[in-house]
Design a protein that fits this description.
With 236 residues, the protein is α/β, with parallel strands linked by helices. The chain has 2 domains: 3-33, no CATH class; 51-203, Peptidoglycan recognition protein-like (Lysozyme-like), CATH 3.40.80. The protein has 9 helices and 5 strands; from the N terminus they run αααβαββααβαβαα. The protein has a 5-stranded mixed beta sheet. The model is unreliable at 5-28 and 219-236 (pLDDT under 50). Bound molecules: zinc ion (ZN). Residues 73, 182, 190, 192 line the site of zinc ion. Zinc ion binds at residues 73, 182, 190, 192.
Amino acid sequence: MNKRSALLILALSTAVVGCSTSSKPARPSIEQTKIEVPTPVVTKPTVRYTQNVREVTSKLKVLPGRWKMIICHHSALVKGNAATYDKEHRKRGMENGLAYHFVIGNGVDSGDGEIEISSRWIKQIKGGHVRDDAVNEVAIGICLVGNLDEKKPTDNQIAALKELLVYLRDEVVGAPILFKIHCEADPQHTVCPGKHFPTEEMRSLFAPPPPPQPQPASANTASPAPRFAPVRRAAK
Ligand SMILES: [Zn+2]
């Protein structure tokens, strides 16, 4: 074994120890620091919660402008997941089952921050999550499991929701999209998604529409109508 191989083995064994979460990484010796460090590989940004959504959505045809808003809900139940809510909604007479497009788990009956995808998303059909069917037609419904009127969502639910909103906004809907919470769509009928829903934090991801630009002075009120210079023909 030559000196370079020995150093490489030493470096690799140190790297394995460094992966352990319980021990501090060993401080490299002066000898080790002489080993050439390979050029770092540029990786894509980390996708922590939306991996599954991305895989499924990449196979769908989402028409630009198909969706005009995203409406957030809570389930008002401590327990549950997409499957249990689907059953419940079918019992209530919804032939397409689960009224939302996505359900974000709280760690009780699905993973903490797990994003479950509804068949409505896969089929790209309207939701059933607000009263006005014209709104259901154009609004993606996202539900956080939990009673957020009594308890905050988990950190993972918030992080998953943010990642999902940004993904939908930037990579899926293909047009400007509005953000709403359920009680803004149905103010008389619900407190959904509850007082602990981080409304402003999520709304801040969606810039308000720009104020209308002042119109340039019209020809009647300001400068006289422009006079057009005669078109010169190029000499032959
Ligand atoms: Zn709701």
